[in-house]
Amino acid sequence: MKLCKFMVFKMIYLTKEHLEQIEKHGEKTYPFECGGMLIGHFAADGVKTVVELLPMENAMDDSEKHNRVLITPRDVLRAERYARESKLDVIGYYHSHPNHPAHPSKFDLDHALPVWSYIIVSVERGKAVNVRSWEMENDRSKFNEEVYEITGEQKVAQRI
Ligand SMILES: [Zn+2]
Fold it and tell me: Is the pLDDT of residue 123 over 90?
């Protein structure tokens, strides 16, 4: 498909296995939040491809764990080092919203980094019900929803 050059078309590719891994992580940690890094690469047109996921420990106190995940700067450094070793980049972050919609919170906006994809899985009663992906506006005012496309391993491999 040829895209109009005036069209802002943010998009991320991931495999069915990645999607299931995110859903399962959210179900496993329910009623607490889970989180992890998206490792992959950026293309010049803004399209991102997830190659692998790096699940993270929730650094919040138990009392806070149900509604927010704190990823420390050390976690980010570790993820960046890990990605670099595989000649990849950290391209985003996924986390779960237990009993809340897959929509970014104010906390998410306050802690977001530009360009990264934020994949959110909504988990209701221990079951993943919805997954959406978001990218922050450059002026930090809001998140815009991003299209995600499920692709086979084959297609991901070709894009590397
Ligand atoms: Zn959130």
Answer: yes
